């Protein structure tokens, strides 16, 4: 499976999605609940735009976008959350995400105008400014928050803001520029205690990715979190396998995967392969020295038939 397909499917889960924004916005506090999130059609999402409260469709651009409706002070407050999965470093992420948010707001203004034209406004006619923009004085935009998750094991070295992508020397010009910051989750640049603030399988995914390049660190991370890694959700295990390209095989039991056992079996297989390669090398050297095949087989502790295959004496 392709990494981008697997990661997009993973973060589209309401529990994972809520976990992302609870970490980034609220420091791990469980404020956004999965049941408050509503995923809409891939091409259209209905939102309560305009003073008339009419629900109108807006095109969606992000990998995953959900509407959060939370009741505050007796009234529903709406926020659009967008999550972007990234397998490789994106050097223009600030422009990409800024464009997504800008298009979202432009779409909201356009759809508010359409809503008013369809429903009409009760009472006084719109002012010239309202008529010109289509966005009425009482209208409000629905906030859009985009977070990018980098599923790579290397450090993110790309710019994290628009101004970082520019080379502005004149401070007077700089003072006129509006910046846009990339909201990034990158495991290689996070301390383990930060990753532990996640509550779902995303925690184990990020821990594994962070330590995947160091066998000792990975073993320590698995051991420290053995209970959760030994009962990991299948989709989380699939993400780990896809993004790290690690050669693990596992079986699913009741929707859970024992990642600890899978890693142990992989390590055992690696040791066996290494032992066999060393035995083959030794067998060839001894054969070239004129030693009998039976004695070679006994010396490397493999069957005679196997050694003969190594030496090309048996098909």
Textual characterization of the structure:
With 315 residues, the chain is of the alpha+beta class. The protein has 13 helices and 10 strands. Strand 6, helix 5 (171-174) and strand 7 (184-185) form a beta-alpha-beta unit. The radius of gyration is 28 Å and the shape is elongated.
Q: What secondary-structure arrangement, pairings included, does this model have?
A:
Elements (H helix, E strand, L loop, with lengths): L2 H10 L1 H13 L10 E3 L5 E4 L6 E4 L5 E9 L2 E12 L6 H27 L8 H6 L10 E7 L20 H4 L9 E2 L6 H4 L6 H10 L3 H10 L1 H4 L2 E2 H11 L7 E2 L2 E2 L1 H30 L4 H8 L3 H7 L5
Parallel strand pairs: 5-6, 6-7
Antiparallel strand pairs: 1-4, 2-3, 4-5, 8-10, 9-10
Helix pairs in contact: 1-10, 7-8, 7-10, 11-12, 12-13
Q: What structural category arises from helix and sheet content?
A: alpha+beta
What Rg, in angstroms, do the CA atoms define? 28 Å
Beta-strand residue percentage: 5-15%
Helices and strands, in order, run as: HHEEEEEHHEHEHHHHEHEEHHH
Contiguous runs where pLDDT drops below 50 for at least 5 residues: none
**What is the straight-line distance between the termini?**
35 Å
Count of helical segments? 13
- Percent helix range: 40-55%
Shape: elongated
Largest sheet, order of strands side by side?
1-4-5-6-7
